[in-house]
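Dear colleagues,

As part of the handover before I leave the project, I'm documenting each prediction I ran so the next person doesn't have to rerun anything. This entry is a single chain, and its sequence is reproduced below.
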Amino acid sequence: MTLYIDADACPVKDESIRVAERHDVPVVLVSNRGFRTGGHPLVRSVMVPPDPDAADKWIAAAIVPGDVCVTNDVPLAARCVEVGAKAVSPSGKVFDADSVGMALAVRDLMTTLRDTGEIAGGGGKGFSRQDRSRFLDVLDSLLR
């Protein structure tokens, strides 16, 4: 098992590494800017080109059944689930075969509504302490 982190905008990188340490699970931080690992024996940083979706493509090509991916990107989560891996958002939402189809449909609907001006664009709700706590519980159970 390996923990992959879609790391560029991930607010729970440090927490993910701490949970992975407890379970002796290797971590791969994938980003287009690279991250220092401080020589941590379980953590590896992969720097991809700054192309759109380069990190997603790299993770999708590397992930295998039984691995776990931390991502907010629903299409990447769907690709992970498709190969038999697990995916979780930084807020603790688990993407699985039962939920990822609906998540993709909602994402596409919201994109269409924003593109047509039916709703205003803008970010979602902020990242809360409850989100972080839920994420830690979920990740711990996925790595167990």
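The first helix runs from residue 13 to 23. The two ends are 10 Å apart (CA to CA).

All the best with the project,
I.
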